[in-house]
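User: Predict Small ribosomal subunit protein eS31's structure from this.
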Amino acid sequence: MAAKKGKTGEVKGVSKYYELGGDTIKSRKSVCPRCGNGVFLADHGDRQSCGKCGYTEFKK
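Assistant:
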């Protein structure tokens, strides 16, 4: 399946999780330390949590 491009020319979904700049790619969201790359932490009001393993980081 070919990736669809949005109005800005970026592939949909990629710009949601990664920041593309020049020769580098940087993750916009925190990555789960237990699950590793590709599994992001959901951002809630007072915490960040992993939907896969349940890991939670509380914000101060």
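The first strand starts at residue 18 and ends at 21.
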